[in-house]
Amino acid sequence: MTGPPKSVLARGLTLLDAFSSADTTLSLAELTARTGLPKPTVHRLAAELVGWGGLERTDGRYRLGMKLFELGQRVPRRRDLREAALPYLEDLYEATHENIHLAVQDGPHTLFLEKVSGRRSMPIESQVGGKLPLHCTATGKVFLALGAPDWFRRVAVGGLARWTPRTIVAPGRLRQELARAAVSGYGVNHEEYEVGVSAVAAPVFDARRRVLAALSITGNAAKLDLDRLAPAVRTAALALSRELALAPVRNPLDRG
């Protein structure tokens, strides 16, 4: 088991990475517990990050600073994919008035690059830049079903956490669900991460037919007809795939 990072830069980044998509603010004690760093070190690094703009202090607690947002806007690969996808997300929103997402795989998580919603959309937990587990999200199931084949094993070995009573936690049952997604061309989430919320997602492919991203429609589980909406999200994802085949963009998380 590895210990806390040793370099100053790595420790500062660990502090920023302590914030999850569900966190608005964290206390000094919470940052210390999540990073495993000594409290004096956390206090010193947090002060330096506040000075730089990576963190902000509010009511004695810390939140991520606007400097990070400014840097994020300068990442060209991410902006290219989002800009290419945005018209299709907006079309899906106009057709459904539900929450529409663009997501990419980030290890064992699905990472939301863009979200389009409105006053008629059901409020849900997802947010741009937020991560959710692969095994209990519609976009995540798309990546598991159609992406790199070893990811199912990695996720299953890591354990399938139960988020709601409907989360699929048996590897065999999840494998069956993914097999259906591979055949149908879309993944579904029936209240598996958030009670009362369901979703349907379809893959976006690059020119070599590798899964690059996924589009999803998310809303009220009692009202959302996933089978009826599946053709719409598949059509949008296919159209975006064709556009990207003509003007390729790379996955924003590619390290190469």
Q: Explain this structure to me?
A:
This protein is an alpha+beta fold. It is built from nine helices and eight strands. It has a six-stranded antiparallel sheet with strand order 5-4-3-8-7-6. The chain has a two-stranded antiparallel sheet with strand order 1-2. Strand 3 (99-106) and strand 4 form a beta hairpin. Helix 6 crosses helix 8 (171-184). It is globular and about 55 Å long.
H-E string = HHHEEHHEEEHHHEEEH
Strand content: 15-25%
Characterize the largest beta sheet: strand count, sense, and whether it forms a barrel.
6 strands, antiparallel
Shape: globular
Examine the coordinates and then state which fold CATH places here, giving the name of the CATH topology of the largest domain: Beta-Lactamase
CATH architectural type of the largest domain: 2-Layer Sandwich
Please tally the helical runs, counting DSSP H or I stretches of 4 or more residues.
9
The span between the termini is 27 Å
Number of strand segments: 8
Structural class: alpha+beta
What is the radius of gyration? 19 Å
Poorly predicted runs are: none
Organism: Amycolatopsis pretoriensis
Pfam families: HTH_IclR, IclR_C
GO biological process, one term: negative regulation of DNA-templated transcription
GO molecular function: DNA binding; DNA-binding transcription factor activity
Tell me the layout of helices and strands.
Blueprint: H1 8-17, H2 28-35, H3 39-52, E1 55-58, E2 61-64, H4 66-72, H5 76-96, E3 99-106, E4 109-116, E5 131-133, H6 138-146, H7 150-158, H8 171-184, E6 187-190, E7 197-205, E8 211-220, H9 226-246
Antiparallel strand pairs: 1-2, 3-4, 3-8, 4-5, 6-7, 7-8
Helix pairs in contact: 1-3, 2-3, 5-9, 6-8
